[in-house]
């Protein structure tokens, strides 16, 4: 792997992470903290922007691999991994693999939430 791509992902990741923190903080301040509105918002916005980039890359702009990595893996990947999940799900549907898309979507959500619960329980037990 080229060091320039790694650096592009790192820079994009830093920008995306800061953007996520600022967006979630501001939206939570506006909407209150009883529901994760900020996280929901960045996931939806990130998915929208990922879709826009995919279409722009396919139709009107062919950026370098480094720029693609900076924007998608770095910026959007750190802003929200949900954008990648959304893209992968839609790509499965567009390839006619709807059943696989449904399995992937359900498994991703259910197993990720279960993984979170398992991690909580394990470390609550360990740290007691």
From TrEMBL:
UniProt-annotated location(s): Cell membrane
Activity-regulation annotation: Na(+) is not transported, but it plays an essential structural role and its presence is essential for fluoride channel function.
Membrane topology: Multi-pass membrane protein
Reaction catalysis annotation: fluoride(in) = fluoride(out)
Coiled-coil positions: none
Residue ranges crossing the lipid bilayer per the database entry: 40-62, 69-87, 102-123
Membrane recorded as keyword: yes
Domain of life: Bacteria
Keyword annotations: Cell inner membrane, Cell membrane, Ion channel, Ion transport, Membrane, Metal-binding, Sodium, Transmembrane, Transmembrane helix, Transport
GO cellular component: plasma membrane
Molecular function terms, GO-annotated: fluoride channel activity; metal ion binding
Biological process according to GO: cellular detoxification of fluoride
Residues bound to Na(+): 77, 80
One protein family per Pfam: CRCB
Keyword Metal-binding: yes
UniProt record similarity statement: Belongs to the fluoride channel Fluc/FEX (TC 1.A.43) family.
Function comment: Fluoride-specific ion channel. Important for reducing fluoride concentration in the cell, thus reducing its toxicity.
Name by which UniProt lists this protein: Fluoride-specific ion channel FluC
Gene: crcB
